[in-house]
Write a structure and sequence with these properties.
- 2 copies of one chain form a homodimer.
- Chain A is α/β, with parallel strands linked by helices.
- Helix content of chain A is 43%, strand content 15%.
- In chain A, strands 2-1-3-4-5-11 form a 6-stranded parallel β-sheet, with helices on both faces. A 6-stranded mixed β-sheet of chain A has the order 7-6-8-9-10-12, with helices on both faces.
- In chain A, helix 12 links the parallel strand 9 and strand 10.
- In chain A, helix 10 crosses helix 11.
- In chain A, 49% of the residues are buried.
- At the A-B interface, helix 4, helix 5, strand 2, helix 6 and helix 11 of A face helix 4, helix 5, strand 2, helix 6 and helix 11 of B.
- Strand 2 of chain A pairs antiparallel with strand 2 of chain B.
- Chain B binds a DNA duplex (30 and 30 nucleotides) through helix 2 and helix 4.
DNA sequence: CGCATGCTCTGGATCGTTCCAAGACAGGGT
DNA sequence: ACCCTGTCTTGGAACGATCCAGAGCATGCG
């Protein structure tokens, strides 16, 4: 078991070890690693051979100390809410880890407290920043009133947001977001093409600007076809129970033939109501969700859902991060991506 | 906005700054932080005041360099498989982050390659280890033939496994696992109490020792009550489609009144078959899953599922990690926790 | 009074890397 | 021959913390 990845009995080799072996100075080895074009070709080859032979890899702590950078990106994680369908962050995190690595960064997870209140996370950000544990942050919830973005801005801490700065037109930080209105429009238009006219909307409460964005897609799609929307919209909490109740009321009062929901969680609530009444999703009543969660993918008969391009979001986030930390100051403050619709049995 | 968390215009204060302000040497400040009982009480107070006034926090890179430790724990993340119900790792990760923090560690995410093959991850482990980027690893898949555990053992790299070392009785590394047999037993016994006798098992292929463990609980529960199991078991891939086919075949050939599944994913497959045939879960046929995923929590009419104590697993993992990295060598090589059964409408 | 003892505190060295300024060397123009 | 320019390489200093050995200073004992 002694391949290229050799074992180190005591301590890993250092820059000095490589330098001695290659017959050059420490700095030359450092240059070979970080600025190869500064070396003459034969010197470079000699050093690279020594590096390979010894299995040298720079010590992170030393490098971090000298360069005043940790090459780590802090990612706060929220408590995953039980009973909701929204574990989609998985895809985002995975892609973020991958694209970060290609940019020379690793992802550090942290959480504030167990309370889940946004304010309680600030000390955690502060500690990481002050102890130079991370170079930048990725924040994922920029809902109205979320203090993190403002706080980080005030601190001049580098960060990229997944989500538009809804509340602050003055914000100058880079952000990446998904066009929720486009998603709502796609789902609604799809249902119209399937022959539906009485299409109901179940979304979040009005103070959720993300929810209002998605809802705008629904009303835009309806209005552009001159389909009336009166009495067909409902705004509730993002829980299965709320979706269940809202859909029951709507069925009784407005007789829709299809539901467009602001989340898979709400859509699952609709499926509950349909099951209660012996109706079949996709047969008697059409339903679409949002987020393309694993629930949407596995529930019978399959839930049509708007899929967010989370992989692409992560790539853009890292791109923005590089612009923030590297030399070239990025010009684009924000990037807006378009989701896709995954059609399944429920519509 | 100038509270305790002051802003640093240029660079954060260092040990030397605190020392000067408190009128002591650097080393004394260091001791005040790391070994407070070495200082006289009044000196300690004086230093602590200076620390608070300056908002001092030790520079991680410098500390890491000197102590030859990163205070980071590496956690490999797998590509979340689309179309399966198993996003339960969320709970584990969150709890791991929390308990790590209490132990003075942070969690660093990494992934090998996009290929998803286990072997391809080894270089990633190797890099992190050689560059002293992490102090230890937490590995989560210890299925038969998984090379990581053996490789890490061979490297003498500190790590804790979530999952028993099925394949290697010689393994001496600490591990934490959940008693799958107990879970299978609980689900089966629950169904027996509900009056079922013809209870079928849908599990994974025989080379999955985790699956065999869970299956053992089913057969134990059946056997202890002298209920025959012949023809009632099926072993397939862990996909919705497989669960769907397997349950269809079992229904035709063995006429079970209940299904115990090795995963929520398979259980969803059963729900598909029931929907296909106009049967109602929990009414005509009972179904139980495994993992208590968000799918189980939200699908109508609610999927009864075995819930793994992932929060507790993470706590035990960190405890083992502390034993591994700190002074006291832990005595217990392994910890086995018991799951619980969450009963919902499907049974 | 001398000296050992224990408690506090200090200054220098060190971890492994990169920054900085300058040295060595070869080639080209006058 | 001379100097100058540019390429390539070098040694010393620095990043900010902890380790180590020892200094200062009471106290206690013979």
């Amino acid at each position: 078991m002694s391949d290229t990845m050799s074992r180190f009995p005591v301590t890993p080799p250092t820059l000095a070890d490589v330098a001695e072996r290659a017959g050059v100075s420490r700095q030359t080895v450092s240059n070979a690693v970080n600025n190869p074009d500064l070396l003459r070709e034969d010197t470079l080859l000699r050093v690279q051979r020594a590096i390979a032979e010894l299995g040298y890899l720079p010590n992170r702590a030393a490098r971090n100390l000298r360069t005043r950078a940790s090459h780590l990106i802090g990612l706060p994680i929220k408590a995953a809410e039980e009973g909701t369908a929204n574990a989609a962050m998985d895809r985002f995190v995975h892609s973020l880890v991958d694209s970060s690595r290609e940019a020379g960064y690793h992802v550090l997870l942290f959480s504030g407290t167990r309370t889940g209140k946004a304010e309680d996370e600030l000390p955690a950000y502060d500690d990481l920043l002050r102890s130079t544990a991370v170079d930048a942050f990725v924040v994922t919830d920029t809902y109205l009133g979320n203090p993190q973005a403002a706080w980080l801005n005030d601190r001049r801490a580098p960060f990229v947001a997944f989500g538009r700065p809804w509340n602050d037109p003055e914000a100058r930080h880079p952000w990446v977001d998904v066009d929720g209105a486009a998603g709502g429009d796609m789902a609604t238009s799809h249902l119209v093409e399937r022959g539906h006219h009485r299409i109901a909307w179940i979304g979040w409460r009005k103070d959720s600007l993300l929810g209002e964005d998605r809802r705008a897609g629904w009303s835009r799609a309806m209005r552009s076809r001159d389909i009336p929307t009166a009495g067909l919209a409902s705004r509730v909490e993002d829980t299965v129970a709320s979706g269940r109740e809202a859909s029951a009321v709507l069925l009784d009062e407005a007789r829709p033939t299809a539901f467009v929901c602001a989340s898979d969680t709400l859509a699952m609530g609709v499926l509950h109501t349909l099951a209660d009444r012996g109706l079949r999703a996709g047969h008697d009543i059409a339903v679409t969700g949002f987020d393309d969660s694993q629930v949407a993918q596995t529930v019978p008969p399959g839930l049509t859902s708007v899929r967010l391009p989370l992989e692409q979001v992560a790539i853009e986030v890292v791109r923005a991060l590089e612009g923030l930390l590297g030399a070239p100051p990025s010009v684009a403050p924000g990037v807006l991506l378009t989701p896709t619709l995954v059609v399944r049995g429920s519509s």
